[in-house]
Structures are given as structure tokens and as C-alpha cells.
């Protein structure tokens, strides 16, 4: 099989799984549907591994530089002779890396769900949706065209919608699904307009044509798009900021982050796959895809990316420290970590020594996928055992859930950036890049990183310690191999993922990049991380009233963070009070009463008029005689007037 | 006989067939066979057309033929098709077939019902193949009157008032169209040297600007009434709310498209200078229809009102595409006509199926449809996702084409209009997902709903046929783009030649 066919099969296999289980699901025994889905995904993972090997070690490199490999090109929607939406698949370092992340985590989640979703009423549908999501996510990752990416962007949104609303008899799930779709749709409006601007300016929607035309100083397209300015920014800067708004929506950046915590209404494996490891990093991937244009053509837009990322990283980490639902803590943690990836891209630039942030951001995306998916799957197995999301219902679980305990701990150490776990390497790279180029972002990131270690160990101690373990508790994990094995495999990634020489494979330019680790840089972030862990241990390892006293001392600030800084309330106000009350209702009223009122009035006036005229034909002879003589008289008067 | 005339003849023969038989079941079967035959014929015709084009046929219209109808007034039965009319014919054939299937269970005056439905389709087919303004108008009228009866007899609710409103407003529209084409007839004599109704001949005449302006507004507003252009759209929500399912499908699926086709083929193509000068007025009206229509949709609880208002908003894209007068925007308008035609038919079919069972269309009274009736629930969701422009379905393709076509203009006015139109897709998502959340998801609200049965065979077929259409456009838009490309280019060139 040629590489082209292999690459094509990677997304098509999950699509096949979706079609098979979705259309013929009724004819497949429930016991097998999950296995079928998992086997198909496993095949996809194997093909992705082959592709990665081929690309990184055989065909990808030319002249010491990784170059994009395009295949399966199709002129899908031709607008003009020189402008069309083309579909195709691209292999380049970031797309191949994403292929691995998506197929790996998706396979893990498929297998895990064999145990977690057992006995669900719509088990087959669940696997069909999983296949659909994986297909669309792979399509997004492999896109060669910005419109193609937008297409799959919308499609991952709808698969996410279907999966968040999987338990659709629960009103909260319905509301959460709706919210996720609409908030991201709103952000996508920016993306769409950005695409229109880019396409108009560069006469193409193909990524590599766009990059070619807009990232070389002096290119006529670039000159045209940076020449005119609107409100102080060039057309290109506007276009890229608009595109980034779409990315910020999908990646749950402030102020579009509100949908992600609610999305936890979906089954927990879905949270691990879609809302932690893959779909939510699409925004990061989008910025990375267009990185040369950002860096060369519109550095201002990149600065915006950096500040949005840094602010969100800190903001979400603060909220994560106060939440009591374990999935909500992890959701805010995800938002915060994606903030790290984006500010890493934001502090990067073009030219020697400036691109470290790019590699660092992608590295963090890579390591985060394994440890965050692991944290979610761990949370899933806890929820599966305890039947509650609330931390207060847990505590002392280390005895009854040993595997979950150990893997969770490893993932927590990884996300806290403790050496030698995966998160340490990627975070160090991020801090090192930020320190060189933007001190504000560096310090904000450092505080966020410190809070990260604190909230995750708060979670860890509250779940596994805090209370004395029940001596007679049976082992909750017995027989749940389908759930335990994926967790163990992900733990391998969380522990060793950082040792991959990431810069050798992925860099902004395609050339290898060294990610140096210097002791002087390490001490501060790691020291702060360790201190946070100690603090969390003191506060939460045993039951005490100290945390409550701290909460009381913090007063209003704690309450604000606990209520997520009232952002949801602000949104609710805008939609309910402004969109519905001030725009929707008046429009509907105006239409019924003024526009249609005019039509109805015209009708009734016509009737009234005809009633009035109808009197003339009364059938009374006297009246007709009167009209007759009246007419004669009038004529006589007129004639006299005219001729006399 | 010209092969195109079969498009009119097949439904007419079907009409004769059902008039001859007595049994209701036989009437249904004959109608179904006739409409299925028409779909096959239309597809075959398209294939023929494509192969002729491939073989190098360069004439603007293919299968052209002309017969004298009434010589003193120069009225000919002049027919011919290009890619644009062909996709409209395909649309009509598919929607009619689905409409017949959906109406299978109608018990009241079966013969009359299918008679009216077929008569409507004859009007639509004739309209799309006419190249003579007078015969075109004749067929347009043929497609109006039966609607009044369909709603008045088989409708529900305030049907008398609503049927009357619909008929009178559409009549007003056709009166304006009539004034416009009569004006064209006389203007052709005064300024072009020959009195003619012929579209092909008229397109070569260069009428003075002030004459064009008057005729442009008459025809654009006249056909605009048919498309439900703001502020002449209020027949649509009321008409739909009372219409039986198949009539709603026809009304929004095809009838509104007669207007859209007229905007392009008559108002814009024959009055090019006026279109270039004054189409901005209709850009404003279209943008209002799109945005304000979407806002008004937000507040609708009755699913039929929701889809009717949503149609006003969606057909606004057709008007917008035509008024933007760029080649890509024209293509977008044509695609949007087809896409919306199928999508809205599917939506009305799903709503009709729900209403037939639950006897309510109020989204807040329903719930749990997906659980109780998975097929119908899924159809509703697919129609909804198409409506909100999900890629993979047809709506995405056509709306994006309109946006790309509109973005060609650089002026701030055009930009604002395009952005407002694009913003409507967010509002669309809100109302679609709200309706889905309330009515389709959730749990059933009444005990008796637990007895409701899922779609029957005829309903399943109707839905599947329409979904295939939606998905075909959504996945392989290049097929349709290639079909219409040269023809929208021709209209565009014509507009910018003089």
C-alpha cells in the first residue's frame, strides 16, 4: 500500500466505523459494536504510526528540512478560475504529530469506553459518534486548505454537540450541548470573515499558497494586505485576529471559555478525548498552521494571541483552585493549559533564535494530550466507582483504586511540571521562550504554573487521601481491564513523553531546533511547583478546618472565583435581555403588527371601501333617478361653464 | 415534438390518469408513478444536457424549440433550458415526488388534492423552461391559484384568512410582474424595433436607462413577493401555518424559487443597466430579510412558523446573491435556491410527521421525539443542521458561495451587508438548537405520546429522497457548479458588457 493510500485510510476508517455503526447499528449485536469501533480505530492508529515513521524518517526531510507532503487533491468547490475550495491531505511535522495524538487518544478512549459505557442504552450510537468525531478531527488536522479546515472545524463542533448532549433526556446536557455549539459558532463567525479576507487578499484558500504569498516580505499580496489600515491595524492583522477569534472559541479562551466547563455534561471519556486532548487544541493548531503569516505579516496579531493565552492561563487556574466538581477542576485546568500553549506561540517570532515558542507550544500540546486525557480517564473511573462528581463524596480512595491512584499521581506530577515527567520539559521550553521575549507574559505564566501544581494536588489529596480509607472497601478496579489498560498506556506517555527530542521534529521552519534546558531556568518554576504541592499536602491531606478559614479570609475574591467571575451571568444577561428581549421580541412584534398589520389593514380597508361603494347599487328606483338627475345637472353646469 | 415538452406532458398525463380512475389507492399509485417518472426523466435530461455540453454544444439554451401560440400578440411557446433551469427542474421533480409520498395518507378528496398538486408542478416546470415572457407568466399564474385551494380546503387553523392573504399577495406580485413584462413588450417595440416577449431577443436589445429602471423595479418587486422578500413576506408564515404538509413543501420548496429564478432571468438579465445601478436597494432589503427574519424566527414557538420565518431569512440569501451581481454570488443564489428548496421541504415534512402524530407543533409542548420516534427525530435534526449551514449538507455550500461572491465588492456598504448576513448563521444556530433541544431531545411530555409510532414507509422514502439531495449537493458541489457555471458567467458578462 502506498503512503498516499495509507494517509487517506487514516481518516476514512473512523468514518467507516461511524457509517457502519450509525446506519447498520440495529443489525449489530450491542456486545460487538464497541469492539468493532475499537478495532477500526486501532487500525487507524497503526496506519498513523506507519505514516509518522515514513514521514519523519524517510520522505519528509529534504535538504535537512521538513517540507509538506500533499496528497489526495480535489477541486471541490470552484468559484472562479483562480479561486476555489480544494480538499486534500497534508503531511508536515505538525499534522503528523496531531495524527498520532488524535488516533492514540481516540483508540485509548474507544477501549476505555468498553468498560465505562457498558450497559448504556445507546451504546452503539455512542461508538458511532466517537467514529464521527475522530473522522472529523483527523480531517481538520490533515486539511490543506483553510476553508477545508473550516468545514471540519464545524463538523467537529457538531460531533462535540452530539456527544455533550448524549444523555439528551437530561435538561442540563441539552443546555450544555446547545451552549457549546452556539458559543463556538459565534466565534466561528470571526473565523469565517477572516477566511474571506485572507482569500480575497491572497487569491487562494490553500494554506501553503497563503503562506507563500503572505509570509515573504516584499510579496505583492503581502504589501497589499498590510498597506491599508483600519482602526490602526492592517487588513492582514484584522484578518488574522478574526481567524484567531475562531480559534479562541474552539480552544475555550477567555471570553469564549464558558462552554467548556458545561461541556462536562457529556460522558467522561468524551471529555478526555474531545474536551481535553484533541478538539479544544484546534485553536492552537490553527495558529500554528498559519504561524509564518502571523509572525512575518502581522506580529501584532501574534501579540494578541500571546496576551489572550497568558491571561486565560492565569484566570482559569484561579477558578480551578475553587471548584469542587472534579470534572470542572479538570475543565478549567484544560482551559489554563491551552492558554500556556497559545502564549508560547504568541511570544515566538520569525528568525533565528525567536521560534522556540512555536516548538514549545506544540510540545506542550503533545504532552498535555497524554496527561490530561489520563487525568480525565482517572476521573472517569473514580466517578464510575463513587457515582458522584463532587470531591466531598470522595477521599481515601487510594486503597480501593490503586491503579487509578498511581496513574493519577503520575499525571498530576506531569502537569505540575516536576522533572522528569513529560510536562516538565514542555513547560520549561515555554517558560524559557517567554522569558526571552516578554517578561509580563513570563511572570503571568509562572504564577499560573504555580497555581496549576496547587489545584491539581488539591484535587489529588481530596480524592485519594483526606479521609481514612475504608478498611473493608472492595477493590473498585477489579475486572475493569478495559478501563485500566488505556490509563496505564497513557501514563507511559505522561512519564516518558518529555524525553522525545521534540525540536528535532517540529519547528516553525522545518529545520531542527535545540530546546536547551538550563539549570538556572529550572530552579524557579520547579521550586514554586514543589512548594505548591507541599502547601496542598498540608491543607488537604488530612481533614481540617484550615482550608475553610482561608476561604473565609479571602472573602469576596474567593466567592468571585468560585462563581467563575460571573462571566456566565454576563452572557446570560446579553442573550436573554439583549438578544431575545431587545432584538428578537421587537422584531417578531414589528413583523406581526406593523408589516403584516399593514397587509391586513389593506385587506380590511378594501372591504370597507367596497361596502361603502356597494350602497350605490341599492336597487331603489328613486335613488337611481336621483343619481341620474344629479348627473344631468352636473353635465349642464359643466357645459355652461365651458361654453358660456 | 420537442423533448422538453415531456416535462409538462408527464404531469399532465398523470392528471388525466387520476381523473379517469375512481379508487383512491389507484390515484395515489398513479401520482407516485408519474412523479417518479418525472424525476427519472429530469435526471436523464440533465445527463443528456451534460453530454451535449461536453460534445461542444455552445448555444446558450439547449433543446430549444418555438411554436406560435397566438400570432397577433407575438406569443410563442418558446422553450429551452440551460444549467440554471435544469437544476430548478430537478429540484421541482424531487420535491414533488417527496410531497406525493408524504401525502399518501390523506383521506379527504384524494383526487382533487393530487390534481391540485400536479397542476402546481405543471406550472413550475413550464415556468422554468419558458423563454417567452408571456408563456412564462401563464405558467407562473398556474402555480398560484391551486395553492389557494390547497390551503383553503385541506388546511388547518385560520385557513380562510391565510389562504386569502397568500393568494392576494402573490396576485399582487404577479400583477407587478405582468406590468413589467407588458412594459418590456412595448418597450421592445419602441426602442428595439420589434415587439417581442422573447427573453433571448430582449436580452440583445438595449433599452434606455429610464425605461429599464421602471421595468426593473416592477419585475424585481413582483418576483420579490414570490421569494418572500422583506417587506412583502408576511404571506409566508401565515400561509405555511395553515397549509397541509405537501403544500408547505411546495410553497417554500418551489414556489419561492419561481420568484428567485425570475429575479435572475427576467429582472436582472433583461434590465442589466438598471440592475447595476439600483441593485443596492435590494441588497438592503435582502440583508434586512436575512437578519431580521432570523431574529423574528428566534421568538417562534410553532415549528411551522419557525421554519416559515427561517425560510424568509434563508431565501434572503437568494435575493442577496442576485443583487450582488457578481458571478460567484449568482452561482450562490442558484445553489441556495436548490439547497433551500430541498432542505425546507425536508423540514416541513418532518414537522408534518410530528404534527400528524402529536397534534401539536408547539416546541414547548413537545419533547422526547428522538426517543419515541428516532427516525423522525433524526430527520428533523438533519434538516436543522442543514438549515444552520453545517458542512456536508447543501446549505453550507450555497451560503459560502454567496459570501465569497459578495466579498468581491470592497465598499464598506457591501462589507456590512455581507457581515450581517453571515452573522445570521449564528442566530440560525440558536433557533435551530433551541427547537431541537425543546422538541426533539428531552423526555416525552405526555403519557399518550408513548404510543406514537415512528415514520411509515412512505414518509421514510420521502425523507430519504430529500436527504440524498441535500447530501449530494453538500458533498459534491462541483457537480452543480459545473452545471451552472457557464450560465451564471453569461448573465454576469451580459451585465457588465455594456
Automatic annotation (TrEMBL), chain A:
<feature type="transmembrane region" description="Helical">
    <location>
        <begin position="301"/>
        <end position="322"/>
    </location>
</feature>
<feature type="transmembrane region" description="Helical">
    <location>
        <begin position="270"/>
        <end position="295"/>
    </location>
</feature>
<feature type="transmembrane region" description="Helical">
    <location>
        <begin position="6"/>
        <end position="25"/>
    </location>
</feature>
<dbReference type="GO" id="GO:0008137">
    <property type="term" value="F:NADH dehydrogenase (ubiquinone) activity"/>
</dbReference>
<feature type="transmembrane region" description="Helical">
    <location>
        <begin position="406"/>
        <end position="425"/>
    </location>
</feature>
<dbReference type="GO" id="GO:0042773">
    <property type="term" value="P:ATP synthesis coupled electron transport"/>
</dbReference>
<dbReference type="Pfam" id="PF00662">
    <property type="entry name" value="Proton_antipo_N"/>
</dbReference>
<dbReference type="GO" id="GO:0003954">
    <property type="term" value="F:NADH dehydrogenase activity"/>
</dbReference>
<feature type="transmembrane region" description="Helical">
    <location>
        <begin position="150"/>
        <end position="168"/>
    </location>
</feature>
<feature type="transmembrane region" description="Helical">
    <location>
        <begin position="481"/>
        <end position="502"/>
    </location>
</feature>
<feature type="transmembrane region" description="Helical">
    <location>
        <begin position="180"/>
        <end position="201"/>
    </location>
</feature>
<dbReference type="GO" id="GO:0016020">
    <property type="term" value="C:membrane"/>
</dbReference>
<dbReference type="GO" id="GO:0012505">
    <property type="term" value="C:endomembrane system"/>
</dbReference>
<keyword id="KW-0812">Transmembrane</keyword>
<dbReference type="InterPro" id="IPR018393">
    <property type="entry name" value="NADHpl_OxRdtase_5_subgr"/>
</dbReference>
<feature type="domain" description="NADH-Ubiquinone oxidoreductase (complex I) chain 5 N-terminal">
    <location>
        <begin position="76"/>
        <end position="127"/>
    </location>
</feature>
<dbReference type="InterPro" id="IPR001750">
    <property type="entry name" value="ND/Mrp_TM"/>
</dbReference>
<dbReference type="InterPro" id="IPR001516">
    <property type="entry name" value="Proton_antipo_N"/>
</dbReference>
<dbReference type="GO" id="GO:0015990">
    <property type="term" value="P:electron transport coupled proton transport"/>
</dbReference>
<feature type="domain" description="NADH:quinone oxidoreductase/Mrp antiporter transmembrane">
    <location>
        <begin position="143"/>
        <end position="449"/>
    </location>
</feature>
<dbReference type="InterPro" id="IPR003945">
    <property type="entry name" value="NU5C-like"/>
</dbReference>
<feature type="transmembrane region" description="Helical">
    <location>
        <begin position="362"/>
        <end position="386"/>
    </location>
</feature>
TrEMBL record, chain B:
<comment type="similarity">
    <text>Belongs to the complex I subunit 4 family.</text>
</comment>
<keyword id="KW-0812">Transmembrane</keyword>
<dbReference type="GO" id="GO:0003954">
    <property type="term" value="F:NADH dehydrogenase activity"/>
</dbReference>
<keyword id="KW-0472">Membrane</keyword>
<protein>
    <submittedName>
        <fullName>NADH dehydrogenase subunit M</fullName>
    </submittedName>
</protein>
<feature type="transmembrane region" description="Helical">
    <location>
        <begin position="375"/>
        <end position="393"/>
    </location>
</feature>
<dbReference type="GO" id="GO:0008137">
    <property type="term" value="F:NADH dehydrogenase (ubiquinone) activity"/>
</dbReference>
<dbReference type="GO" id="GO:0015990">
    <property type="term" value="P:electron transport coupled proton transport"/>
</dbReference>
<feature type="transmembrane region" description="Helical">
    <location>
        <begin position="278"/>
        <end position="299"/>
    </location>
</feature>
<dbReference type="GO" id="GO:0048039">
    <property type="term" value="F:ubiquinone binding"/>
</dbReference>
<dbReference type="GO" id="GO:0042773">
    <property type="term" value="P:ATP synthesis coupled electron transport"/>
</dbReference>
<dbReference type="GO" id="GO:0016020">
    <property type="term" value="C:membrane"/>
</dbReference>
<feature type="transmembrane region" description="Helical">
    <location>
        <begin position="113"/>
        <end position="131"/>
    </location>
</feature>
<dbReference type="GO" id="GO:0012505">
    <property type="term" value="C:endomembrane system"/>
</dbReference>
<dbReference type="InterPro" id="IPR010227">
    <property type="entry name" value="NADH_Q_OxRdtase_chainM/4"/>
</dbReference>
<feature type="transmembrane region" description="Helical">
    <location>
        <begin position="166"/>
        <end position="193"/>
    </location>
</feature>
<dbReference type="Pfam" id="PF00361">
    <property type="entry name" value="Proton_antipo_M"/>
</dbReference>
<feature type="transmembrane region" description="Helical">
    <location>
        <begin position="213"/>
        <end position="233"/>
    </location>
</feature>
<feature type="transmembrane region" description="Helical">
    <location>
        <begin position="337"/>
        <end position="355"/>
    </location>
</feature>
<dbReference type="InterPro" id="IPR003918">
    <property type="entry name" value="NADH_UbQ_OxRdtase"/>
</dbReference>
<dbReference type="InterPro" id="IPR001750">
    <property type="entry name" value="ND/Mrp_TM"/>
</dbReference>
<feature type="transmembrane region" description="Helical">
    <location>
        <begin position="461"/>
        <end position="484"/>
    </location>
</feature>
Amino acid at each position: 500500500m502506498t503512503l498516499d493510500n495509507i494517509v487517506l485510510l487514516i481518516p476514512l476508517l473512523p468514518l467507516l466505523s461511524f457509517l457502519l455503526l450509525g446506519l447498520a447499528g440495529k443489525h449489530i449485536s450491542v456486545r460487538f459494536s464497541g469492539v468493532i469501533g475499537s478495532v477500526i480505530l486501532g487500525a487507524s492508529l497503526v496506519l498513523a504510526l506507519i505514516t509518522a515513521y515514513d514521514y519523519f524518517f524517510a520522505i519528509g526531510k529534504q535538504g535537512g528540512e521538513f517540507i509538506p507532503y500533499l496528497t489526495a487533491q480535489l477541486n471541490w468547490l470552484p468559484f472562479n478560475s483562480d479561486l476555489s475550495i480544494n480538499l486534500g491531505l497534508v503531511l508536515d511535522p505538525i499534522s503528523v504529530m496531531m495524527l498520532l495524538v488524535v488516533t492514540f487518544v481516540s483508540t485509548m478512549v474507544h477501549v476505555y469506553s468498553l468498560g465505562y459505557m457498558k450497559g448504556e442504552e445507546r451504546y452503539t450510537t455512542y461508538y458511532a459518534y466517537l467514529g464521527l468525531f475522530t473522522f472529523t478531527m483527523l480531517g481538520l488536522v490533515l486539511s490543506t486548505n483553510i476553508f477545508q479546515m473550516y468545514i471540519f472545524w464545524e463538523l467537529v463542533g457538531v460531533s462535540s454537540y452530539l456527544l455533550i448532549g448524549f444523555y439528551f433526556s437530561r435538561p442540563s446536557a441539552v443546555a450544555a450541548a446547545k451552549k457549546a455549539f452556539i458559543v463556538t459558532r459565534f466565534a466561528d463567525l470571526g473565523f469565517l470573515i477572516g477566511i474571506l479576507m485572507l482569500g480575497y487578499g491572497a487569491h487562494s484558500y490553500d494554506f501553503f499558497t497563503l503562506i507563500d504569498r503572505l509570509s515573504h516580505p516584499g510579496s505583492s499580496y503581502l504589501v497589499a494586505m498590510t498597506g491599508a489600515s483600519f482602526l490602526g491595524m492592517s487588513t492582514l492583522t484584522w484578518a488574522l485576529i478574526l481567524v484567531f477569534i475562531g480559534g479562541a472559541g474552539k480552544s475555550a479562551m477567555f471570553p469564549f471559555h464558558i462552554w467548556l466547563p458545561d461541556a462536562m455534561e457529556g460522558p467522561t471519556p468524551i471529555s478526555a478525548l474531545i474536551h481535553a486532548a484533541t478538539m479544544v487544541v484546534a485553536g492552537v493548531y490553527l495558529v500554528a498552521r498559519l504561524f509564518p503569516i502571523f509572525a512575518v505579516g502581522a506580529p501584532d496579531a501574534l501579540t494578541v494571541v500571546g496576551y489572550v493565552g497568558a491571561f486565560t492561563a492565569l484566570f482559569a487556574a484561579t477558578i480551578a483552585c475553587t471548584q469542587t466538581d472534579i470534572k470542572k477542576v479538570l475543565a478549567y485546568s484544560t482551559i489554563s493549559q491551552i492558554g500556556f500553549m497559545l502564549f508560547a506561540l504568541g511570544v515566538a517570532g520569525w528568525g533565528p533564535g525567536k521560534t522556540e515558542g512555536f516548538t514549545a507550544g506544540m510540545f506542550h500540546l503533545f504532552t498535555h494530550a497524554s496527561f490530561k486525557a489520563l487525568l480525565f480517564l482517572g476521573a472517569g473511573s473514580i466517578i464510575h466507582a463513587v457515582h458522584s462528581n463532587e470531591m466531598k463524596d470522595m477521599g481515601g480512595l487510594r486503597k480501593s483504586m490503586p491503579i487509578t491512584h498511581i496513574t493519577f499521581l503520575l499525571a498530576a506530577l506531569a502537569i505540575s511540571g516536576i522533572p522528569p515527567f513529560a510536562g516538565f520539559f514542555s513547560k520549561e521550553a515555554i517558560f524559557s521562550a517567554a522569558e526571552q521575549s516578554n517578561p509580563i507574559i513570563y511572570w503571568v505564566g509562572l504564577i499560573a504554573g504555580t497555581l496549576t501544581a496547587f489545584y491539581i494536588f488539591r484535587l489529588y489529596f481530596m480524592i485519594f487521601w483526606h479521609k481514612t480509607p475504608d478498611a473493608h472497601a472492595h477493590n473498585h478496579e477489579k475486572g475493569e481491564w478495559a478501563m485500566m489498560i488505556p490509563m496505564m498506556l497513557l501514563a507511559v506517555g505522561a512519564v516518558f513523553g518529555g524525553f522525545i527530542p521534540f525540536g528535532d521534529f517540529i519547528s516553525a521552519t522545518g529545520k531542527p531546533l535545540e530546546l536547551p534546558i538550563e539549570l538556572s531556568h529550572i530552579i524557579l518554576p520547579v521550586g514554586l511547583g514543589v512548594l505548591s504541592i507541599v502547601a496542598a499536602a498540608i491543607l488537604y491531606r488530612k481533614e481540617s478546618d484550615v482550608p475553610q478559614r482561608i476561604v473565609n479570609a479571602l472573602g469576596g475574591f474567593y466567592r468571585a472565583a468560585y462563581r467563575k467571575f460571573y462571566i456566565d451571568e454576563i452572557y446570560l444577561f446579553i442573550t436573554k435581555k439583549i438578544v431575545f428581549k431587545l432584538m428578537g421580541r421587537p422584531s417578531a412584534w414589528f413583523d406581526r403588527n406593523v408589516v403584516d398589520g399593514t397587509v391586513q389593514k389593506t385587506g380590511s380597508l378594501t372591504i370597507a371601501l367596497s361596502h361603502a361603494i356597494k350602497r350605490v347599487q341599492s336597487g331603489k328606483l328613486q335613488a337611481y333617478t336621483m343619481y341620474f338627475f344629479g348627473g344631468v345637472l352636473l353635465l349642464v353646469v359643466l357645459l355652461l361653464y365651458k361654453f358660456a | 415534438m420537442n423533448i422538453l415538452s415531456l416535462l409538462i406532458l408527464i404531469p399532465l398525463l398523470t392528471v388525466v390518469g387520476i381523473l379517469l380512475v375512481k379508487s383512491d389507492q389507484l390515484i395515489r399509485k398513479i401520482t407516485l408513478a408519474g412523479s417518479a417518472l418525472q424525476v427519472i426523466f429530469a435526471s436523464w435530461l440533465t445527463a443528456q444536457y451534460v453530454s451535449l455540453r461536453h460534445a461542444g454544444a455552445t448555444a446558450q439554451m439547449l433543446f430549444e424549440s418555438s411554436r406560435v401560440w397566438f400570432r397577433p400578440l407575438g406569443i410563442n411557446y418558446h422553450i429551452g433550458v440551460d444549467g440554471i433551469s435544469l437544476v430548478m427542474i430537478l429540484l421541482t421533480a424531487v420535491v414533488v415526488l417527496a410531497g406525493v409520498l408524504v401525502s399518501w395518507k390523506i383521506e379527504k378528496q384524494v383526487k382533487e388534492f393530487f390534481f391540485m398538486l400536479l397542476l402546481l408542478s405543471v406550472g413550475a416546470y413550464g415556468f422554468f423552461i419558458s423563454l417567452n415572457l408571456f408563456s412564462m407568466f401563464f405558467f407562473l399564474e398556474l402555480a398560484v391559484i391551486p395553492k389557494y385551494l390547497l390551503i383553503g380546503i385541506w388546511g388547518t387553523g385560520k385557513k380562510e384568512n391565510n389562504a386569502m392573504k397568500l393568494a392576494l399577495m402573490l396576485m399582487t406580485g404577479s400583477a407587478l410582474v405582468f406590468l413589467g413584462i407588458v412594459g418590456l413588450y412595448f418597450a421592445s417595440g419602441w426602442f428595439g424595433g420589434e415587439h417581442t416577449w422573447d427573453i433571448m431577443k430582449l436580452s440583445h436589445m438595449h433599452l434606455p436607462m429610464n425605461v429599464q429602471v421602471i421595468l426593473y423595479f416592477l419585475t424585481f418587486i413582483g418576483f420579490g413577493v414570490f421569494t418572500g422578500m422583506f417587506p412583502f413576506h408576511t404571506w409566508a408564515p401565515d400561509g405555511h401555518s395553515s397549509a397541509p404538509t405537501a403544500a408547505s413543501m411546495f410553497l417554500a420548496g418551489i414556489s419561492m424559487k419561481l420568484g428567485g429564478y425570475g429575479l435572475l432571468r427576467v429582472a436582472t438579465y433583461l434590465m442589466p443597466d438598471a440592475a447595476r445601478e439600483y441593485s443596492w436597494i435590494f441588497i438592503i432589503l435582502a440583508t434586512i430579510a436575512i437578519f431580521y427574519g432570523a431574529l423574528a424566527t428566534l421568538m417562534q414557538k410553532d415549528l411551522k412558523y419557525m421554519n416559515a420565518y427561517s425560510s424568509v431569512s434563508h431565501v434572503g440569501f437568494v435575493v442577496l446573491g442576485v443583487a450582488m451581481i457578481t458571478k460567484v454570488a449568482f452561482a450562490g443564489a442558484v445553489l441556495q435556491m436548490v439547497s433551500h428548496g430541498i432542505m425546507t421541504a425536508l423540514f416541513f415534512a418532518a414537522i408534518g410527521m410530528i404534527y400528524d402524530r402529536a397534534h401539536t407543533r408547539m416546541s414547548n409542548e413537545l419533547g422526547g421525539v428522538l426517543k419515541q420516534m428516532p427516525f423522525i427525530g433524526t430527520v428533523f435534526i438533519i434538516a436543522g443542521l442543514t438549515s444552520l449551514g453545517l458542512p456536508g449538507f447543501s446549505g453550507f455550500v450555497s451560503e459560502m458561495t454567496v459570501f465569497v461572491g459578495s466579498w468581491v465588492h470592497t465598499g464598506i456598504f457591501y462589507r456590512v451587508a455581507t457581515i450581517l448576513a453571515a452573522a445570521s448563521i449564528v442566530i440560525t444556530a440558536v433557533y435551530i438548537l433551541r427547537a431541537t433541544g425543546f422538541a426533539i431531545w428531552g423526555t416525552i411530555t405526555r403519557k399518550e405520546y408513548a404510543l406514537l409510532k415512528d415514520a411509515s414507509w412512505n414518509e421514510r422514502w420521502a425523507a430519504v429522497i430529500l436527504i440524498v439531495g441535500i447530501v449530494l449537493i453538500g458533498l459534491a458541489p462541483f457537480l452543480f457548479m459545473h452545471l451552472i457555471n457557464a450560465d451564471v458567467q453569461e448573465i454576469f458578462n451580459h451585465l457588465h458588457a455594456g
